[in-house]
Model the fold of this input.
Amino acid sequence: MKKTTWKTNESHSMQGEIVVNLPKYTERLRLIKSCNFKTNDGGEIVTGFDQVDSLITAIEETQKFIESVSLVTKDGQKIDSYEELEHTHGCDSILPEVAFFIINGPQLGNN
Done:
């Protein structure tokens, strides 16, 4: 199974990385289907409050692809498991970002 790393940037409330096992193409298609996201005419996922159920499904379904978590908050708290990530205030934006990273896969040349 191919691995890659999702890394934080300056906009995040913490710094570090999450190592993920990339799903195969057919697994990614199943993830997209199971999440039941609404898309626009261009095929891009449309976000909004009415997509919360789809977002929950995406986060739950992609959890199995996360191999390791290594994050540190600005106040020095270490987060080194998915369980801690899910229960740490301030990680709300990271969970969906990682889920979409897994579903979409890294861009060519960036893995």
Observations:
- The first helix runs from residue 25 to 35.
